[in-house]
Amino acid sequence: MSARFVQQLPHRRERVADWFARPGAVTRLTPGAAPLTPRAAAADLAAGETVFAMPVGLSWRARHDPAAFIPGRRFADEVVNAPWRALTGWRHVHELADSRGPGGAGTVVVDRIRARVPAAALHGLFAFRHTTLAGDLAAADRLAGVLGIGAGVGREPGERLPRLTIAVTGASGTVGTALVALLGTAGHEVIRLVRGAAAGPGERRWDPEAPAADLLEGVDALVHLAGAPIAGRFTEAHLAAVRDSRVGPTRRLAEAVAAAGTPVVVSASAVGYYGADRGGEILDEDAAAGPRTEALAGIVADWEDAWAPARAAGARVALLRTGLVLAGGGGLLPPLAGLTRACLGGRLGSGRQWFPWIALDDLVDLYHRAALDPALAGPVNAVAPGGVDNAAFTRTLAEVLRRPVGPPVPAAGPALLLGRRGAAELALADQPAVPARLVSMGHVFRHPGLAGALRHELLRPAPERG
Known about the structure:
Number of strands: 18
Largest sheet: 7 strands, antiparallel
Shape: globular
CATH topology of the largest domain: Rossmann fold
CATH architecture of the largest domain: 3-Layer(aba) Sandwich
Radius of gyration: 22 Å
CATH class of the largest domain: Alpha Beta
Strand order of the largest sheet: 1-7-6-5-4-3-2
Structural class: alpha/beta
Number of helices: 15
CATH superfamily of the largest domain: NAD(P)-binding Rossmann-like Domain
Strand content: 15-25%
Number of domains: 2
């Protein structure tokens, strides 16, 4: 089988070629919903291997073909390990060609696939790749515009963004993996702060209980994502783990920021700050915190307050109060999609509770913007403008997956898994958070609508109209 996929981009070929060659490109182009997870990327496009982990301990090893490589114009890879070489014979040739359009120089990207794989199975994959590549380049140009950076001689705005050294905690999680890749393809130097031994120059060991004095040496911005998963049964032990992984380590990082003079901090936070049920109140960033008698609201408020030493030292601290992240490879979406595919995906309780979602790519765009944009400080609601209630989310997911809506889940159902408090503060929480600050700043979301976000992450592109 041979397949050919073509994409037209309004960007210089040299810029597109640079994007493909940078660290993180393989991760950015690999859908979370695919049964492949990048584990090691080839050092360059001319030679070397990229290794993907697969289910049940299998792997996929793609080796670059030096004979096919033409700098800035062509590179190729083929699978070399058993059983996939014999089963599929996969070979992928990437070609970049100059083009001209009304806006000036552009690029035609052609992907040629030769493999014993049904062509229909590749459409979702390449729709994801095309959307991601175009979205990353366009987002960089928009960010340059926000910063007042225009085009230069032979360079587009996004190519002229400042290049920072950015340290990231929680870099191996769903959001952290995508963010590190985005920052890498944008040209930044990324330092992963890891709890274990550092594996190379791109990592530093971080002890959350006692950060090293030189942890943030030479760092322009710190992104803090680490923390124990909030989802789970709200036992005292679980809530203690959630709190202890956030409040204390954050305060010690804030003290390290103050000591090092790190100028920028971008920290995860959560819409749980507002409490479980505000009676339909629209929640912008000026809304009051929820009652500290609620476990999650109290933890999030203390988590945000823990950055006080960094703010007192003059650091710009942005707090991204994040909603429910839609990612094909982790978090809430895969289990919900699995239930929906089995025709068991029904609304929770009344279904009237608000579902403040955000697409993964939009979230990492916000972290990138917050690291560079001096106008972003304090709380920012990291949610999409197209919020919906639980019933509407359930219907839209069923439509994208072409399944009927499942039977409603009684309100008592989530309590069996999460406990009474967990059900009230997570599954049944009604938090109509809106991205008021971002909208007022003219921020552009890649996926402002729910259906488009779900189609992208679940590899279900909209049918072509003919």
